[in-house]
Amino acid sequence: xxxxxNGRLVADAWTTLDAESPLPATGAVIVPLSRLEEGxxxxxxxxxxxxxxxDAEIDTLRTVLPRLSLVAVTFPIFxxxxxxxxxxALREHLHFTGEIRATGKPLPDQYEFLLRCGVSTVDxxxxxxxxxxxxxxxxxxTAYQPSVLGERAxxxxxxxxx
Length: 162
Fold this sequence. Notes:
Blueprint: E1 3-5, E2 8-10, E3 15-16, E4 29-32, H1 36-40, E5 48-52, E6 70-75, H2 82-92, E7 99-104, H3 111-116, E8 121-123, H4 130-139
Parallel strand pairs: 3-4, 4-5, 5-6, 6-7, 7-8
Antiparallel strand pairs: 1-2, 1-8
């Protein structure tokens, strides 16, 4: 599937494995959460990512985050927004600096909010028009919510105390 970063299509250097695929000894791989321990057994220098379901507790990744280069959050349907909270928690509370990838069925209208929550890349759903997503990246310039990007919110806003 096409991969979008900062409104542009980019090459995907990662291989996403399912629960049955053999785990290669080398190369950047993304494993399901159920196979994370197996992925962690690879050589420490190999890039490892994990796909987490929308009902996963982010705090369970706390001890392994230093070994992860990528965490993929899942949007199974457009109205399930738990992945927004997961991405934000990864950045704000666990201070994850690696790639956060949105997978599943996010909508172009959600793109700017995905970025403001800490998502780095979006695995575009099948049938998506990359031009629509690129336009969504430039469509909104004013935001009232605080961002994990360190941007200043414009307009009247209530500051959150964490």
